[in-house]
Amino acid sequence: MEQKKLDIVLGLQWGDEGKGKVVDVLTPSYKIVARFQGGPNAGHSLVFDGDGFVLHTVPSGIFRENTVNIIGNGVVIDPVILMEEVAAIESKGVDISGKLLISKRAHLILPTHRMLDAASEAAKGKSKIGSTLKGIGPAYMDKTGRNGLRVGDILSRNFLDRYNALKKKHFGLLAQYDFPFDITDYEKQWLAAVEALKRFPFIDSEVYVNEALAAGTPILAEGAQGALLDIDFGTYPFVTSSNTLSAGVCTGLGVAPTRVGKVYGIFKAYCTRVGSGPFPTELFDADGERLRQTGHEFGATTGRPRRTGWLDMVALKYAVMMNGVTDLIMMKSDVLDGFDTVKVAVAYEEDGNTFKNFPYDGGEHVKPVYKEFPGWKTPLSGLRRYEDFPEAFKQYIAFIEQETGCRIRIVSVGPDREDTVLR
């Protein structure tokens, strides 16, 4: 039997592109859905049968029948948040027994990681990076510093000793900050959640995934955050702590580059960003507020209002290149329905120079050069065929395809599972 290739779905902007819905739509074609990086700072929103749900750690295939969901080794897990999420999923009548598997190599977020995150962010003052304060950065720091605790360690006889030793180290670090804290209550919850986690199989996910591929099982790898938040190639330091690019699949699940098949890149028909950092096309006018309100642009994890702006083709082409995108997926097209004019940044200007390459600093001081398109002024939400799209919207799609060299395979015209046009 020919070995199957693993497909990837990931965000091409600063996160919040709509990955949850897309994974939910794509999963009927896959037997396994696996998260490969990030932590509970992810907020993957799903809407189906008129009901909404936000996933933070559990892969977005969990609501589909006969789909195995894997939390991979590249993910960092807060047991409290994960078990709360499990309870919420099960309250919907979904049986996840046997459907959720956790890598032994995934690292744990400790209560003191959350305190370190909050203390560090508070100390930055005006230089805050916009952390979600979930302890993700400190957990990855312990991972690379070779101090971390992993899911497989939960089964060790000396787990509590190791936990207490790491906690003591964190207390020493926290003493450097003028930051009052108390982990007593959260620690009780955390230790109870660690026990509750044992109901799920802890697996050698790299072996599981590669054996499944060898057996011809179709697998979809689900990314969190977005390409422009990648620790190496994003708008550093205003980034997340993991590799959000397609390359992160290789280390985050333990698969070779030759095992990667399709790379589905998701982007909004405009741009949003949460937290601090460069955002060349950001709007501070009525158009920006209209995008925010019409698109319900408030963080699924934090509830924070998202910054909004026009589509940035310079950044999108960079993300397509870095990820080796084979198929594009455009989300929230319907949010632009009411605009007379729709703009796209096609270049940047700085100090009198015009350029089209995404800059090292993420475009902190650039001015966008826009191309304008006539708005379609037609509700897209009820449309189910590309042929029925208004001509102005088809031109918008054609321009993006021409610029990126990638075909847009899926167009989302609303939040529900059914509001999806496959091309």
Structure description:
This protein is an alpha/beta fold and 423 residues long. 29% of the residues lie in helices and 21% in strands. It is built from eleven helices and 20 strands. It has helices at 19-26, 79-90, 111-124, 136-144, 159-174, 184-197, 205-214, 248-254, 286-294, 313-323, 391-404; strands spanning 6-11, 32-35, 44-48, 51-55, 68-71, 76-77, 100-103, 107-108, 202-203, 219-222, 260-268, 271-273, 307-309, 311-312, 327-331, 341-350, 353-355, 367-374, 407-412, 420-422. It has a ten-stranded mixed β-sheet with strand order 9-7-5-2-10-1-11-15-19-20, with helices on both faces. Strand 19 and strand 20 form a beta hairpin. The longest helix is centred in the middle third of the chain and has 16 residues, at 159-174. The protein is globular.
Characteristic key phrases:
single chain; alpha/beta; ten-stranded mixed sheet; 21% strand; globular
Which secondary structure elements does this structure contain, and how are they paired or packed?
Layout: E1 6-11, H1 19-26, E2 32-35, E3 44-48, E4 51-55, E5 68-71, E6 76-77, H2 79-90, E7 100-103, E8 107-108, H3 111-124, H4 136-144, H5 159-174, H6 184-197, E9 202-203, H7 205-214, E10 219-222, H8 248-254, E11 260-268, E12 271-273, H9 286-294, E13 307-309, E14 311-312, H10 313-323, E15 327-331, E16 341-350, E17 353-355, E18 367-374, H11 391-404, E19 407-412, E20 420-422
Helix pairs in contact: 2-6, 3-4, 3-5
